[in-house]
Amino acid sequence: MPIKDIFWRDRPVFVTGCTGLLGSWLTEALLKKEACVTGLIRDYVPLSHLIGSGMLNRINVVRGELEDFALIQRVLNEYEIDTVFHLGAQTIVPIANMNPLSTFEANIKGSWNLLEACRRVPRVKRIIVASSDKAYGEHRKLPYTEQTPLKGAHPYDVSKSCADLLAQSFHATYGLPVCVTRCGNLYGGGDINFNRIVPGTIRSVIRDERPIIRSDGKFVRDYFYVKDAVQALLLLGERIESSSVCGEAFNFSNEDPMTVIEVVRIILKLMGRADLKPRILNEASGEIRAQYLSAAKARMILGWKPRYSMAQGIKETISWYREFFEHAEF
């Protein structure tokens, strides 16, 4: 077996947010590479891909919150963790707007707890922190590069700006081996937040209902397939010992921004239901109208590129949800 294929074999890996969209698929990829995975779970979410697939039974499960510093430090020590993927966060923008304090607790305090615990455990050799394109806030110049200032304005955006800066601070001050990822809007099978446009539209079509767009449909975003995000995270983990990678932030995007209505039309076309006209509510507030990323740095330094086009990613996602709803007991 080539050396690159055994990098993760038996490696003790800690994944926060392992039941989320990205966390579920990352955990699955790590298990396929024979890593020894420990996952932090706050709430038991039965519809999670991690749980529904049975993968939860193949990892060490720790129940608790990122806000519990002693718990995080215990996990790193007792499971002899070598690599940390910090994905745990409150990720829903409307919830952050309604509940800013709990979002700040999870996303900011949770991040400094994780970073400080890693600092106190020298065994930890690589830490990947999942930030977001939302950490940049709103800028006129597009696409955003890694040199674009972090200046989130709304609660979720601010929480990601802070977590991102905390990671950079721990590297600059203590030499902590950390990298930061900033991805566009993730989509893929296993996203059970049906207020998001991709899973929500697919569910509506399966139920023979008109899809709902809560904005005016003209907001522009990156849409980034979760399997491409997983490969980006794994690549960073494997390359973090390089001086050109450690301590750096990387944008990951397929560099093909689209409006919300364009995404809905792609889904309707691929599902053969162009006759279903979306209901446009125009109720979105506290969100940035146009935001998308340049992935030039990742392409140049990491040799990275996405494996999936939007159409390929959406096709796989539709297939996942068709099977999910066929077997769902509700």
Notable traits:
330 residues, 14 strands, 11 helices, alpha/beta, Rossmann fold
Given as residue ranges, the uncertain stretches (5+ residues, pLDDT < 50) are none
Mean pLDDT: 95
What is the architecture at the second tier of CATH? 3-Layer(aba) Sandwich
Overall 3D geometry?
globular
Order of helices and strands: EHEHEHEHHEHEEHEEEHEEHEEHH
Instruction: Give the CATH class.
Output: Alpha Beta
Task: Profile the largest sheet.
Answer: 7 strands, parallel
Can you describe this structure?
With 330 residues, this protein is of the alpha/beta class. It has one domain (3-192, 224-254, 292-307): 3-Layer(aba) Sandwich (Rossmann fold), CATH 3.40.50.720. Helices cover 40% and strands 15% of the residues. The protein is built from 11 helices and 14 strands. The strands form 4 sheets. A 7-stranded parallel β-sheet has the order 3-2-1-4-5-6-11, with helices on both faces. It has a 3-stranded mixed β-sheet with strand order 12-9-14. The protein has a two-stranded parallel sheet with strand order 7-10. Strand 1 (12-16), helix 1 (21-32) and strand 2 (36-41) form a beta-alpha-beta unit. The longest helix has 20 residues, at 100-119. It is globular, with a radius of gyration of 19 Å. The relative contact order is 0.13.
